[in-house]
Write the structure tokens for this entry.
Amino acid sequence: MLKSTLIVMCFGGLLMSSASALAQNAPAPAAPATQAAPADDPNEVVCHAGEPILGSRFPGPRTCHTRKEWDQIRKDSQDALYHQQMERSSNGPGH
């Protein structure tokens, strides 16, 4: 009796978790056509999930910046990577 109850509970839990996963993947309702595109506003605050914590499936803490700040962060990262690659190529393996 206990074993069959446990099996039914596990099956019900799996069924409920798959239903919630399907609900999360459902398309969001469309925004009204009267609103301006949010990508145009450089002062809009946008939050991104942080890097996953090592050994965890959960994302790290959220980081929030304005679109203008995110663009600057992206540009700074690209510049730093470019300079690292140029230093590495100019030093070469023989130096």
Q: What stands out?
A: Residues 41-95 form one domain.
